[in-house]
Amino acid sequence: MSTESFQIRICTPAGIEIEEVASTATLPGVDGEVGILPNHCKYAGLLAGGVLSYFSEDIHEVRKMLISEGVCSFSGRILNILCTRIETQESLDPSGYEMERQDLLRIISEGSADDPERVEAAKQLRRLASIEELFKK
C-alpha cells in the first residue's frame, strides 16, 4: 500500500464484507457527504443510509454500493465502516420500484409527522432515491 492510499474495511453483522486498498472515498454522513483522502486527519462519524463510493486501487476503478445507516472511523490509514447491510449494483434491479414509490408517497401524504409508518416510509423513499443515484452514470 502506497502513501497515496489507505485500507477500506466494510463490516456488517455477518463479518468483513469488503477489504481493499482505496485512494479516495465518499461516504453518506448524517450531515452530508464525507470525503476521505490518504493522510486524512483522524475522523469518526455517523453514516446515513446512501451511496458509498471509492476508488479501488486493487481493480483501478470506482466502486459504488448502497449502505445502511452505520458508523465510520479513519485512523492510521484505515477506514472502517460498520453498517447493517451493503447492496451492490449487481444485487439490485433499478427498474421495479415505481409501484413501491407510489405506495410510499401515499403513506407519507396521509400520515402525521410522528406516525411510525410514515417515518419508515420516508426512510424507504430515501433508500429508493439512493438506488437511483447508484445507477446514475
Report what the structure shows.
The chain has 137 residues and is of the alpha+beta class. The protein folds into 2 domains: 6-89, Sandwich (ATP Synthase, domain 1), CATH 2.60.15.10; 92-135. The chain is 24% helix and 45% strand. The mean pLDDT is 90.
- The CATH topology of the largest domain turns out to be ATP Synthase, domain 1
CATH superfamily of the largest domain: F0F1 ATP synthase delta/epsilon subunit, N-terminal
Provide mean pLDDT, rounded: 90
User: Which parts are unreliable, with pLDDT below 50 for 5 consecutive residues or more?
Assistant: none
Largest sheet descriptor = 9 strands, mixed
The CATH level-2 architecture of the largest domain is identified as: Sandwich
Number of helical stretches of at least 4 residues: 2
Give the N-to-C terminal Cα separation. 29 Å
Helix content: 10-25%
Report the count of strand segments: 9
Order of helices and strands: EEEEEEEEEHH
The CATH C-level name of the largest domain is Mainly Beta
Cα radius of gyration in angstroms = 16 Å
Class by SSE composition: alpha+beta
Strand content: 35-45%
> What's the number of domains?
2
What would you call the shape? elongated
